Amino acid sequence: MKIEPATTLFCSAISEELDQFADSGRWNTFLCGVGNLEAALNLQKFLLEKRNQNEPLPSQILFLGSAGVYPWLHPSFWKGRFGYSHEFQNQEIAKIEKRIRVPEFVADSFEFRSPFQFQAVEEILPSKTNGTGSVTIDTVSGRSLEFLRTEDLGFENMECFGLARVCSEFQIPFCAFFALTNTVGPSGSEEWKQNYRRESTRLQDFLLSFFV
């Protein structure tokens, strides 16, 4: 699994999830901030500055971060593995349960061609990512779980949908690798706090072994 360090941009919400790549000095790294809006605005500003200075834009953007896993995927299936997505949606749980309405013309899905093939890589779990911009702390209802399962939305992340929106606008390929830290639900935040540092280190170690 080879990539070109000079033209690929690695981004993450927080430094702890990208520190090994940043410290190596070999990779182009960027901290986008937390949440869809913050991440999108910061990446857009970064890319516009490059364009205005006549500098080449990245050939692809890879997000490294953490994600919760929806309960339709049993922990025995995903624990110890890493998530991978090249398709991103924004499906609020309240929208799925018809407690709120979002106008139909609002874009809620972005798909990119996958630059990697992982069928034979046991450590990687591919699925789509639901970029809600928030953390679901309620127990996810059966109705919502059935929708998420049908759509193959396995992961929940706070930044990727905003980043995908910007990458689509700039026509830059985008994908994401995740440390899978918790089951989405009432205990998710505490599980994330306990696991994100260890799992982020594992993810970076794994990817660095491939990207050389």
From TrEMBL:
Residues 155-210 form the Nucleoside phosphorylase domain. This is Phosphorylase. Signal peptide: none annotated. It holds the Pfam family PNP_UDP_1. It comes from Leptospira stimsonii. One of its GO terms (molecular function) is catalytic activity. One of its GO terms (biological process) is nucleoside metabolic process.
